[in-house]
Amino acid sequence: MKKQNMVLTIAVKEVVAAFRSRVATLLAFITWILLGVAVYTGMQQEREAAGKKSRAASLFRHEWEEQEANPHSAAHFGTYLFKPHTFLSIYDHGLNRFLGETYRVEAHVQHEVNHSEAETAGSQLRFGELSAAMVFQLLVPLLVLLLSFNAITRERESNTLRLLLIQGVKPAALIRGKIWGIYFIVLLVVLPAFLLMGIPVIVQDHGQDALLRYGLFTVAYLVYFFLFSGIGVLVSAWSRHSNAALIGSLGVWFLLAVLVPRAAVRMIDENNRLPSRFELNRRIAQGYSKGMGEDGTSIERNRKLLDSTLKRYKVDSVQQLPVNFDGLAMQNGEDYNTKVYEHYAGEVERTVRQQQESLGWVSFFDPFIAVQQVSMGVAGTDYHHHLSFHRQAKTYRDEFIRILNMDLANSGSAYLSYGYKAGPEFFKKMKDFRYNPQPAGLAVGQHRWSWLALAAWCLLVYILVNISAKRLTNIYP
Amino acid sequence: MLQAIQLTKKYQQHTALDHLNLEVAKGEIFCLLGQNGAGKTTTINLFLGFTAATSGQAFVNGLEVKPGAADTRKFIAYIPEVVQLYGNLTGVENLDFFCRLAGFRYPADMLKGFLQKAGLQPDAHARRLSGYSKGMRQKVGIAIALAKNAEVIFMDEPTSGLDPRSTQEFADIARQLGSEGKTILMATHDIFNAVNVGTTIGIMNKGVLVHTLATAGITAGELQQLYLETI
Amino acid sequence: MKLLKTIFIFEWRQLCRQGWLLSGLCLFLAVSLLSVYSGNRTVGKRWVQADSVREAYHKDFEAALKRFTDTSTSKGKAEAKTAGMAAVINFRLPQHAVKYPEPLAALSLGLTDIRPWHEQVRYVKNYNDATEMPVNNPMTLFAGNFDLAFVIIYFLPLLVLAYCYSLYSSEKEAGTLAMLAVQAGSVARVVRLKLLFRFLVLAALLLVVNGLGFVLAEKRAAPGVPQMLLWCLFSLLYLLFWLGIAYFIVAFRQGATATGMYLAACWMLVLVILPSLANTIVQQRHSLPLKDEIAAYRRHQSEEIWNTPARILSDSFNRYNPQYASTADPAKDTLHLSTRYVAGYYDLLERRMERVIAPYEREIEDRNRQLAALSAWNPASVAQQWLNTLAGTELPAYDQFSRQADQFQRSWKTFLYDFHIPGKQLQAADLERFPVFRYQPPELPVRGMLYQAFMLFCGLCVLFATGSFVFNGKDQAS
Asked: Is chain C adjacent to chain A, meaning 3+ CB pairs within 8 angstroms?
């Protein structure tokens, strides 16, 4: 009971002192202004982008429905699908600038999700962009460290550390009290922001899942801020002077938030090499024309299909078939194309997944990486969500093309004749694309290592508090 | 109340304190007199438990001091040479903070009473410490000791840098504490202050306690003579 | 002069005795070397990929050549007949435009990881940029490059901060201010000399690191002397900029922690907040067009043109390309799917596409110009941009590559159309006459760079002068 009081007493004093010296007020002010700008611009951009996408999507749908065309030329005409953003992407843009937004549905070609913003921009974009996540990930930790670097050294320098210990304060309790005090200040600054940012999630009714995601988003950052409060106070406990503590804190921040994330990601990328676009294109093209394994060339595969079809319908020539063989042959080509694409693009996807997995492991060494991964995950702006869109779009595309090919096959039109045309009543029947968002639970599972890393860091801070306490008992070694 | 048996502290080659034997009774004001580096502060640090002895033992109220052990700290208070405290808290708030840490909660008027008893003018109680003089800060330090109701008070060069009036005020308070039964161990190099305040004086040189004598039968002049001879 | 010598001797002694100062220098050196290694891996991988393009082409080329002569089997005989057809050559032996890494690329990777560095060229222009985009983990792009330029832009300022934050306050805390003022005449002078000493130490370190970078960078040709000199000039100016900031803040004579905090805030402002704000402002003002109109237009045009009667298409082709008029054969050309019908289809589509793409490209150029104008005020952005430019990895270099690749595509088309349109076969010897792509990097904008360096230098003079003014003003006040 008494120990509890001690920690609380120290914590309360820390808060009062911080607000009296106006450090906390300044901190709050800077954070709120930047958050305000970030959220405002984020919402504006998101609204504009969503508007553009929905206009474009309805235009393409309209054009699709209102055509009068041979199913195969309609397949060439194809359509475009657009990646919808989750609501939380306002707060964490994540990889959005580096990911495409448009998926082309077209006969014969398996596209990727193309046209990212970064493709057209200069290197200036690499400095990052203002978003709530950036403020939380980079700026708030720095401010927390500036608030906490002299928490213990100040006591040391003004001799109050000895007084505190004489009063019977246990060193570990002192460190804990400081951590909680600083964390409480941080909460006073960020909690109103989190509450305000939560309002649109609730009011605009984005569903239970969005609410859950926002909750996870908040929890992740609150844990992250706690870690930095702990790191700051611990650095202070290990330093002899405030000056050294300041340099130490800045060093730790630079290491965790700037240096390691870049270096680690690059090293992971080098250790799990991706093919060049040329190699990938070449493999896919050759895989299709020459065939994979024992499948035979495209001509041989086509002949095999013809033979088996003729046998099935018990006729001798393609003209005698009750179906238009062109449709079947093209679908056969599509199926094989899908197989080749899934094989080679699947290799790339596996490598990228392997890289993501390694990054999850690295986050045990760096809470910045952990929170970045976790935040992107719940905001739905990470690679996994992109992949989920791509997969759904691709499934839609394959089915879309299959329906058209089958319509051609069953149209009663003659082989290699192009006179047959389907009308709006047919094209309208084809379902529009609907993106099925990933549930929040899946997003957590995909970044399980990073979530665990955040927890592990909490444990580490707890252990370090007890280790560092020993440094305070022997203050004049 | 305080006892040291063969207390020794070595830093690598250097012996800061050499087999100190010392006994301070309840109500005694014991002044350690000596030059810089004589071992006064080391002695105090060893009693406070801020540093571990190389050999020997120190006892407070019959309990052995172990480094960092909280059990002896219940009885003691400490006034460092420079009482900085927290500049952005007021005198009352500083006192309140340290009292709570020691496990006491006092109402505001009692806190003010402690400050007053320590000699701090009432108009200063609600002002922030950043505006305090050195003497005023020290009074807050004494108030902390009073509020803790400590049996033993350690003071490290309490009068260095104080003006004559503050020094006199300090001496009055220290004597009063002694008369109330508090034990005080004070390190100083101010001979006149030592004679003025202390009941017993120990002269230290190079880590060794050379002389121990009562102030009752000695004048400042005689003490100075002895001191200069010793060092 | 005597004072300078005294201060330098004592500063040197301080430097040698303070372990953490020396370890700071060593850490910088170590991280720099690591970054060069990382840049080398990236560029090394690029070279391997570029070589694989060349090898693959070489293989294709040999195979295509062999088809002309290999008539040992009946299949070979059949193939020899078609081996010289322009359409077959175009299909089997597409040409390659490759932008090889320039000598300093490993030190400043810039847009290396995201912009296309290779284009496969056929006689029909490819409008789908996606087929050339490097395969990437978007997380790698997001994290940014880890190269020497990054170490200079981000880490160097922090080193300056650590070295200079207690320039004045250390004297204050040691209680030596009054003595300095009495002995040396002016505290400000002493602090300036201390700053000069630190500049010399950091500049020496920076030059060593740059030199090591030039030597160790993965390259296949020696870097140009102007490039190396300008690299050193810009990195030194950037160092001076941060020393100027440090001096300015030190001039306010705050305690070490306050000075350190202000410097950290400046770091955050210059390297994170201002650039990201500039990005956000430009994104806000010029949101990226979706390209949907281009896509919709292309679909409609290709349908419309494809359904145009063959006679009109071949006529249109002859009108736009009079050089092939002499071999026109109306009877054949006006057939559906005739050579001139297909060529006319692509010719017309290309002309119409250029018309809709141009405004889109202007919009993007506009956007990038705005961003450049905004970031021209931020020395960190400027330094990053020039280092990239010197390494040949900035936007203009990639735009130049893309233009030259387009040019090459046109010359390839011209070369093949001379056979394709009249229906002539290529001979084996013609394969040796193929146009060759050689990337010509854009001329180094030396004048612009020197002008900007001069402007930066003037700005620095103002910064130092203001710092001195503040410093001296405080001197009189105290």
From this structure: yes
Nearest chain C CA: its distance from A171 CA (Å): 24
Q: Do A168 and B73 touch (CB under 8 A)?
A: yes
Interface contact flag, A476 B48, Cβ < 8 Å: no
Can you list the residues of chain A whose pLDDT is less than 70?
1-4, 473-477
Structural domain boundaries in chain A: 3-475
SS3 track for chain B: CEEEEEEEEEECCEEEEEEEEEEECCCCEEEEECCCCCCHHHHHHHHHCCCCCCEEEEEECCEECCCCCCCHHHHEEEECCCCCCCCCCEHHHHHHHHHHHCCCCCCHHHHHHHHHHCCCCHHHCCCEHHHCCHHHHHHHHHHHHHHHCCCEEEEECCCCCCCHHHHHHHHHHHHHHHHCCCEEEEEECCHHHHHHHCCEEEEEECCEEEEEEECCCCCHHHHHHHHHHHC
Instruction: State which residues form the domain around B18.
Output: 2-230
Q: What is the mean pLDDT of residues B61-78?
A: 81
pLDDT cut 90: percent of chain C above it: 53
Instruction: Give the chain C residue nearest A94 (alpha carbons).
Output: C142
- Do A162 and B48 make contact, defined as CB atoms within 8 angstroms? yes
pLDDT computed for residue A26 by the predictor: 82
Res. C184 pLDDT band, cuts 50 70 90: low
Q: How many domains are contained in chain B? A: 1
pLDDT of residue A477: 39
Q: pLDDT for C128-175, tens place per residue?
A: 777 888 998 999 999 999 999 999 999 999 999 988 988 888 777 776
> To the nearest whole number, what is the mean pLDDT of chain C?
89
Question: Which domain CATH number covers B67?
Answer: 3.40.50.300
What's the rounded Cα separation, in Å, for the pair A202 and A39?
16
Does C120 contact chain A (CB < 8 Å)? yes
Would you call C139 and A95 a contact, using CB atoms and an 8 Å cutoff?
yes
Q: What is the pLDDT of residues A250-260, one digit of tens each?
A: 999 999 999 99
Shortest CB distance from B102 goes to which of A16, A159, A168?
A168
Contact state of A476 with B50 under an 8 Å Cβ cutoff? yes
pLDDT tens digits, A115-126: 888 888 888 888
Question: Which pTM was predicted?
Answer: 0.88
pLDDT at C478 over 50: no
Going through C62-219 in order, the beta strands assigned E by DSSP cover 95-98, 118-121
Q: How many CB pairs below 8 Å do chains A and B form together? A: 82
Decide if C158 and A48 are in contact by the 8 Å CB cutoff: no
Contact status of A345 with chain C (Cβ, < 8 Å): no
